[in-house]
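INTERNAL TRANSFER SHEET
From: sequence group
To: structure group
Subject: Flagellar basal-body rod protein FlgG

Please process the attached sequence and return the structure record in the designated field. Keep the field labels unchanged so the import script can parse them.
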Amino acid sequence: MRALHIAASGMMAQELNVEVISNNIANMRTTGFKRQRADFQDLLYQNIRRPGAATSDTGTIVPTGIQIGGGVKTAATPRVMSQGNILMTEKELDIAIRGDGFFRVRLPDGRTAYTRDGSLERDANGTIVTVDGFVIEPEIVIPDTARSISINAQGLVQAIIGLDAEATDLGTIDLARFVNPAGLQPIGDNLFLETESSGPAQVGIAGEEGFGTLLQSYLEQANVNPVSEISDLIAAQRAYEMNSRVISAADQMMSTTSNIQ
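Return from structure group:
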């Protein structure tokens, strides 16, 4: 009976939907996390009576026809790149991006990754790195004698060196943006890689046209709305239950048919 397979595809789709929602909820406190959602498509249809087919020699046609769908499939799990809330941390190397853009991160294998996670640190050489020790590009080194580090909205890093009275420019943290940021490939550790779908990275200074600005001592929170996620979870559970009832109903119908004497 076709209904068994159709309902099974619905259960599998809702199972994946719950997995996506659970990942969003699990990362609701992850810095710079961008939530995903599951998009679905209907499967191929069996045309039992094709609309538009001729029904007589006088030119009358079938107005609607008869098509039986084959169920549902998952089409994509796009990432929603909307702005997350900004939270004050009072840590001088925490930086939030307000608007479009990603920090550039040099991976150990030489590739460049991109992140919205601005919880930065200094390594043993004074270089600004991520919490995993990956260098933020362009590389900026803060001297040991530096104090009162400041980072303005355009990413200019300044510090008072030693007994100097004025601040010294140490470098500028630039940003990268993409035509299609949802096409970036997530690799974990709050990092993304460029893909053909995302388009090439466009590097620029924060605050320039199309780029966001930076905010020192703040971090961007995940853009996960707990109330919305729980509502979606309940809806997915109900859809899963209804598909399971279809399977039960189809099984009972098959049992009735097999018991006919």
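Handover comment: The chain has a mean pLDDT of 93. The first strand starts at residue 39 and ends at 42.
Transfer complete.
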